[in-house]
Amino acid sequence: MSSIEQTGRTVDDAVKNALKILGVSREDVEVEVLSQESRGLLGILGYSEAKVRVTVKATAAPPVPAVPPEEEFAVAEPALAALEVEAEPAPPWTGEPSPLALRAQEVLAKILALMNLTARAEITREDDEAVYLTIQDEEDLGLLIGKQGHTLGALQVLVATIANHPLALEERKRIIVDAADYRARRERTLISMAHGAAEKAKRTGREVPLEPLNPRERRIVHVALATDSGVTTRSEGEDPERFIVIVPTGPRPPSRERDRGDRGGRSGPRR
């Protein structure tokens, strides 16, 4: 039986995270609560998430291909690179923002002002799980995103912590901070890169290592190739140098085909 451990803001959130990875429904699993969430001092210091172990029942239907657990729900954002693939513009959100969304927008705007930036903080949409903010700025995107998205990730954590602080745990939401649709464009580029590397692995019959990626980026690649029966994916190394290796599952082609596929060099570091 498949079994994984997952964390979340609440026990229910942790279970939902596990179900998403396993690709099964709630009635198909058994849940063991390993630890309850703790609010900590003043609701911030010492805060710890709930942790559960979810096991697929023997009678359950076969799950869809799972994403490695360590690739789920990372705070870090994508690296600033390879934006050549343009994202489709999302339709404007016309809903009414909640008090939490307005507070998160105000917090982000104040932080940007303290950074002496003229960037604008806008609410792009909101649902039952999250508030989505975007930073509009034509001059300082590189500064706002930072190397491997560290600045954007830090802004997201800071805004979420301050905006959610006055609320009870069950009222809190994830706060997602983007910058001029950067996340969507980067995701499309990663998917394109993953499929290209998978084709090379199948053509040459050899493993293809990718460049180091953060956990969110690795998850995007795993999901993009989860239904490709010609390859499997695995993660190797330690963060921040952890990377994905794409492994062909079919027979090795003749040596001439392998040599032809190798002329371009490797796609990334090989450990």
Explain how this protein is built.
Mean pLDDT is 77; it is low at 41-45, 69-88 and 263-271. The protein contains seven helices and nine strands. The chain has three domains: 3-64, no CATH class; 99-180, 2-Layer Sandwich (GMP Synthetase, Chain A, domain 3), CATH 3.30.300.20; 188-262, R3H-like domain (Ribosomal Protein S8, Chain: A, domain 1, 2-Layer Sandwich), CATH 3.30.1370. By secondary structure, the protein is an alpha+beta fold.
How widely separated are the two ends? 32 Å
* CATH topological fold name of the largest domain: GMP Synthetase, Chain A, domain 3
Number of distinct helices: 7
Strand ordering within the main sheet: 1-3-2
Query: How would the global form be characterised?
Result: globular
Radius of gyration: 21 Å
Uncertain segments: 41-45, 69-88, 263-271
Strand runs, count: 9
Short description:
By secondary structure, the protein is of the alpha+beta class. The chain contains seven helices and nine strands; from the N terminus they run βαββαββααβαβαββα.
